[in-house]
Amino acid sequence: MTNASNGHAMNRKLGEWVKRELLGLVKPERAAVKLEAGQLDLFSGTYDVIGQTYKIEAQVQDGQLVLVIPNTTSGGTENLALRFIAPQRAIVVGGDADGLGVEFLMKGDEVDFLRFGARLYPRASADAASASLPVDAL
C-alpha cells in the first residue's frame, strides 16, 4: 500500500482496524515476563545494521530495555521501549512500531543476533569482520 519510510505502521494500523471494526476480531494482550536488571544487561549492546552507516543500540533505561534506532524523519534517534513476552522475546510498546516483534538469538550464553521485525542484526564485536549470518537463522 505504501513505500514510505513508516508505511509499515500505517499498514499495521489499517489491518488492525479492519480486523476489529469489520470482522470483530481483537488481538489478545500478551502477558509480560518480568526480567531482572542483570538479565536485561545480557541483551544490551550494539547491533550492526549491515550495509548502513548506523547501528542499533539496546540499552537498559529505568529498569526497561530500550532499542535506540535512527529516526529518518528528524535525523535524530528514537527510543523504542520493549516488553518481554518470553525470556528472549519482546514486543515494542507504544509509537508507530507498537507490537512489532523483537527476539534475541543466542549462541550459548551470549546474544549473537537481534531479530527486529523480519530482519537480523548481528551483535557488534571487537572483531566485526568475523560476523556472518548463520544460514539456519534466516
In short:
By secondary structure, this protein is α+β, with helices and mostly antiparallel strands. It has two helices and eight strands. It is globular, with a radius of gyration of 16 Å.
Commentary on this structure:
The structure is a single chain. The protein has 138 residues and is an alpha+beta fold. The protein has 2 helices and 8 strands, in the order ααββββββββ. The chain has an 8-stranded antiparallel sheet with strand order 1-2-3-4-5-6-7-8. The chain starts with 6 loop residues before the first helix and ends in a 16-residue tail after the last strand.
Helix and strand topology:
Layout (H helix, E strand, L loop, with lengths): L6 H16 L14 H7 L1 E4 L6 E7 L2 E7 L6 E10 L2 E4 L8 E7 L2 E7 L2 E4 L16
Antiparallel strand pairs: 1-2, 2-3, 3-4, 4-5, 5-6, 6-7, 7-8
